[in-house]
Amino acid sequence: MASRKSAVLKNNEEEKQEEEEEEEVSDSPTEVKMSQIIMPCHCNHRQELCVGQLLKWIDITACLSAERHAMSPCVTASMDDINFEHTIRVGQVVSIKSKVNRAFNSSMEVGIQVSCEDLFSGHHWKVCHAYATFVTQRKETGERVLLKPIVPETQKEQLEYSLAAERRRVRMLHDDIIKDLLTHGCDSVEFSNAVAAEKTKVESVELVLPPHTNHQVNTFGGQIMAWMVNVATIAASRLCQTHPTLRTIDMFTFRGPSQIGDRLLLKAIVNNAFTDSIEVGVRAEAYQDLGTNRHINSAFMIFEVLDDHGKPCTLPRLQPEPLEGERRFQEAIARKKIRLDRKYIISRKQCEVPLSVPWNPRNQVYLSYNNVSTLKTLASRKKWRLSSEKDKVRLYSLEEKTMLSFRVDTEVDVPAHTAFSLLAELCNRPSWDTYYQKCDLIHQVDDDDFLYHVVTPSVHPRIHQDFILLASKRRPCGSGDSYVIALRSVLLTSHPPTEGCNRGEVLCAGFIIQDTKNNMSLLSYYNQASPEVLPYISSDIAGLSTSFYNIFSSCREYLTANRLHCTSETITGENLNSSPQSNEADRLSLSLCSTQQ
Predict the structure, then answer these.
(1) What is the pLDDT of residues 235-265, one digit of tens each?
(2) Cα(369)–Cα(346) distance, integer angstroms
(3) Radius of gyration of the chain (CA)
(4) Which CATH number does 186-352 carry?
């Protein structure tokens, strides 16, 4: 336990340092804070806070933020993955902070941060963070409530506002990703001494009483989640024959409402047992005395069993039931693949992510999200320093620990949508960028993501350098958004390194284009300088070279010369907010307006 405690303290110090570096004064009108001291009645047999109780508090706090912004009743539509990094014990204080990151037409994303405080030692640490989607309920007349937009004030709020659109994109594609993974599923395996899945089945019925409802007289969503955690824990315990620890709850969606007098039938079963984790599937159905069962929620929960040193133990394997059990077994493998992709592509810090991640169609969504979010995160940094300026081209640098990043700003006499359309054609970049000798399109993934092979000069004589780049292109999905062209290295088995070329890597690079006055735009290029780029940019930063000024002066001339030849359609504020993706999400939001909070 001592080693685990020291690791926690080390992480706490790193998190505290990061918070001090990025701390900004925020006076968001939607921010809600809750603090609770943990009492024995909140805890399990180990004197640790029950996750179900924590989910109740999270849901209450997030709902208050949503209703403060909407000024009308709101209900929980969905909750993204929640990963519980640490447990909370009796006597400690849990603090929950929530605020609305972004409002769409009738739905909004609420960000939630959960931290813990030890009153005797004074230590603070993060427990988890979550993103919940809330929708407004229709008025008594049946009229929908349209939400006013969020106006971000601090840089951190602006970043969350921008990334909320990317997270929304991932949510909408989640089911399609599962289906695609299942088409490439692996064969089931029979294990010796495996535990039969039917032995882990749990069923429990709860009667919904007035204390279980919210201020809208619907069954409280946090209460339903707490009941689901209870039956899931029993199912996991039956497999491992000890007390497991809940580590992760996968993304889930509330499908329908429940009211006072409903009976909630809760079913749980272990779907799959991996080497050191267990996935339990839980289904909640509501019914009245004479009515049929209504499916109102499903969730997938991941448990671990920890030894005395806090390390995961090896677990018994599972023999699934025929047919439906086999389907759940395969789906659990697909969800584990998604969790790994999210952990190593999205959730990890940039310094912990391998530069070139193998690309395949099944992790494309997360690579694309990471590509765009990493660029936006880099752009949101506060400590950029102006290194030099020439011919209206400004060069900035940013030093963070062992990483050097640079930014080039220049204003162009071209509308932002036109500049975006011209620069998004990466194959044309060699015509203005002498660093790009050749750029070929390998594969168009979809309308927004492309794979390119780029050849550049090398610092070594008679040797070229090449890159395999994923380009993710984003138009604004609402007012206040910028145009984005994000670039990062990936690995392609079809394009291995070749003799005579050094394979380079790009962690984060790309353009962010913003509209300015008089139909002009501000063009910002960012790059986290990898060893392949550093020899070129360091000379410019030190004032020994002007190569990047020349390149971006050439870029400005290229955009100006081709502005009249660009045939891309003009994007107006009206059709930005009525995109097919936006309409689809709003239809989903409206269908959930009767969902319980």
Answers:
(1) 999 999 999 999 999 988 888 888 899 999 9
(2) 7
(3) 26
(4) 3.10.129.10
